[in-house]
Specification:
Layout (H helix, E strand, L loop, with lengths): L1 E2 L6 H10 L5 E4 L6 H14 L6 E6 L5 H14 L3 E7 L2 H11 L2 E5 L8 E7 L12 H14 L1 E2 L7 E3 L3 H11 L8 E6 L5 H8 L11 E6 L21 H10 L3 E5 L6 E4 L5 E2 L1 H18 L6 E5 L5 H8 L3 E5 L3 H11 L3 E3 L5 E3 L8 H13 L5 H7 L4 E2 L3 E4 L3 H12 L7 E3 L4 E5 L5 E7 L5 E8 L2 H16 L1
Parallel strand pairs: 3-4, 3-5, 4-8, 9-10, 9-11, 14-15, 14-16
Antiparallel strand pairs: 1-7, 2-6, 5-6, 11-12, 12-13, 16-17, 18-23, 19-23, 20-21, 21-22, 22-23
Helix pairs in contact: 1-5, 2-3, 2-5, 9-10, 9-12, 14-15
């Protein structure tokens, strides 16, 4: 039996190549991302992950297109025999929670921090395990192309559809991982950016889920769910989107501020003076807490993941607490795979993704925020002082340059910085990283974008002047 779908157009098939990225699916609503395409992707996911007779959790964010897209995906997957569990409005880490606690595959409809014209799908294997182009997404893409061209044959047994509300259980679970009941009273400003943080923060940190009141006074900014993002983009990585939070923290004399991205899986921190706290500082802070907890439980060999763009202070902190740092490439699915391979208790990225073994190795911005609150609440000093101790070095931040000839730019960098030039050591774990040691040390990483003709530069050094010198020299080579 064939399920009737619209005949595929050449554009539909071509759009699959555009929207299936390295770690997720992302495209323009109604343009490169259409309901027939999503229907086919749902069927393909059910086949590739062998979900006939198995559960598939489906959740979505607050974007206008998300509910219809979730239904289209569910219809395709159900046609191929998957039993759909709709969890409705949720953050991405709520979706991971449902996948982990039910040991079921999951699909989350969101475009994260992208503007309102975008949407996408984050797919997880059972237990919130990641999936990438190399580990299943390419196969899903190719199966979907076949279904778009020929239709979707029904499985011998169609899947079922049920609904589940996981918000309360999610909130209870997170509170079981980080104790906040006995911290000193804190006043915090939270900018949800009209994204899913407006749904989860009142449940986890407030009393919406019926949980006991915590010693937190929450000043909400943009908690109204609105996928059109009327106030600012839900992308805290861009400094302009932190301005409202920074001003409000100072006006309210708050202890700190939190900013979540659109699907609330990333969290950025602002100190009491309105200054951003580096995600590397948060990584070091949370790593120390998780290592201490693991050691107190009797673990002898403790590992923590950090990608190669986090500050040198991160592995120094990990080693200083007796654990083993594991340096990895940048990338969501890569970090998840390393978390599983090493049994790491925690992992952190420069982009404010934080991964927890107690959360199935998945990333959870809310859980990272709770660790920060626990640290500040257990100390009398302000977060600015705590953050300063975890930010001893000087970083450029990520600087993007449009480059027509990437190999030629690489050659110029190697000639100037490498063994035949400055004499820095080199590795190619992810792009090229140059490292020069000694009392005056620095490192510089140059990585190509996966989707655009860009080179991304990150530099860190022992002094601000040295960082600026290396940064400017590298940019001149990249852009010449």
């Amino acid at each position: 039996m064939q399920i009737a779908i619209q005949p595929a157009s050449g554009a539909d098939l071509g759009d699959l190549q555009q929207v299936v990225k390295n770690y997720d699916i992302r495209g323009l609503v109604g343009d490169t991302l259409t309901e027939p395409l999503i229907n086919a992707l749902g069927a393909a996911t059910a086949d590739e992950l062998e979900l006939a007779g198995e559960e598939l959790v489906i959740g979505h964010d607050m974007r206008d297109s998300s509910p219809a897209y979730a239904r289209a995906f569910a219809a395709g997957a159900r046609t191929r025999g998957a039993n759909i569990v709709h969890i409705g409005l949720c953050s991405t880490d709520m979706n991971y929670y449902a996948s982990g606690i039910r040991d079921a595959a999951a699909a989350m409809f969101t475009a994260s921090h992208n503007p309102a014209s975008y949407n996408g799908i984050k797919i997880s294997r059972a237990g919130a395990r990641g999936i990438s182009l190399d580990t299943g997404l390419a196969a899903i893409r190719d199966r979907a192309a076949d279904y778009l061209a020929a239709g979707i044959p029904a499985a011998d047994q169609l899947g079922t559809e049920t609904e589940a509300d996981v918000l309360v259980d999610y909130a209870v679970y997170l509170r079981s991982l980080v104790e906040l009941a006995n911290i000193r009273p804190l006043k915090i400003v939270v900018d949800a950016g009209n994204g899913m943080g407006g749904h989860t923060v009142p449940a986890v940190l407030g009393t919406l889920a019926g949980l006991a009141k915590l010693p937190l006074e929450i000043v909400p900014l943009y908690f109204e769910l609105d996928g059109n993002f009327p106030n600012h983009e839900a992308n805290p990585l861009d400094p302009k989107n932190l301005v409202d939070l920074q001003q409000r923290v100072v006006e309210e004399h708050a202890d700190l501020g939190l900013a979540f991205d659109g699907d609330a899986d990333r969290c950025f921190v602002v100190d009491e003076e309105g200054q951003p706290v580096s995600p590397s500082a948060v990584t070091a802070l949370v790593a120390a807490r998780e290592i201490t907890r693991a050691a107190q439980s009797g673990e002898q060999s403790i590992h923590v993941i950090h990608n190669l763009l986090t500050s040198r202070h991160v592995p120094e902190t990990i080693e200083g607490t007796g654990a083993t740092p594991v340096r990895t490439r940048v990338g969501h699915s890569l970090i998840k795979a390393e978390m599983a391979r090493t049994g790491a208790v925690f992992g952190g990225e420069h982009s404010a993704h934080y991964y927890f073994r107690d959360f199935w190795g998945a990333d959870n911005g809310m859980l990272a925020a709770m660790h920060v609150l626990a640290t500040v609440g257990a100390n009398t000093e302000p977060i600015s002082a705590i953050a300063a101790r975890h930010t001893p070095y000087f970083a450029s931040g990520e600087i993007n340059s449009t480059v027509a000839d990437v190999p030629a730019a690489y050659e110029r960098l190697v000639t100037d910085f490498g063994p035949g030039g400055v004499g820095a050591s080199m590795d190619e774990l992810d792009g090229i990283t140059f490292t020069a040691g000694g009392a005056q040390w620095w490192w510089a990483n140059i990585r190509p974008s996966n989707t655009e003709p860009l080179l991304r530069l990150n530099v860190e050094a022992s002094s601000e002047a040295l960082m600026a010198e290396v940064r400017d020299r590298a940019l001149a080579l990249i852009r010449s």
